[in-house]
Specification:
elongated, 5 helices, 140 residues, mainly alpha
Length: 140
């Protein structure tokens, strides 16, 4: 009679963790809200530029409209990456790169130049990175 053996680790299929299907939407919404808040805080700290909450709805509306193409690209990339990468850090890193590239491209396409262009790019890139830290890709 043959001796029973335990299966080797290569015979056991890898269990995939359940992923957060709403991550791209949560991340996008948080970065859209965080961006104008950081712009106003930057204006208050620097003492010039935009230091009033009255501009918050304007930045929110324009951020919402101008970020839609980048949001679509990130949602598409997330759907592809979640099946091919297991590392949440790698997925977030790639998505942040796509989103920051989208911010740069948006500012280039609309022809934003001047003294406020670079601080706004930095603020919106920072809001993307901070928002990505607030949500999990995989369910606990």
């Amino acid at each position: 009679m043959p001796t029973p053996t335990l299966p080797s680790s290569s015979d056991i299929p890898e269990k995939r963790r359940a992923y957060n299907t709403g991550y791209p939407g949560q991340w996008w919404a948080a970065s859209i809200l965080l961006g104008p808040i950081l712009v106003v805080l930057l204006g208050v700290v620097k003492g010039g530029g935009i230091s009033s909450m009255e501009m918050f709805p304007v930045f929110l509306l324009f951020g919402l409209v101008f970020s839609l193409p980048t949001f679509g690209a990130c949602w598409w990339a997330y759907a592809r990456l979640i099946d091919s990468l297991y590392s949440a850090f790698a997925i977030k890193l790639l998505l942040n790169g796509i989103a920051i590239g989208g911010v740069l491209l948006t500012f280039f396409v609309i022809g934003a130049t001047g003294t406020m262009a670079m601080p706004l790019i930095i603020v919106y890139a920072s809001s993307i990175i901070l928002a990505s830290c607030c949500f999990r890709i995989y369910e606990p």
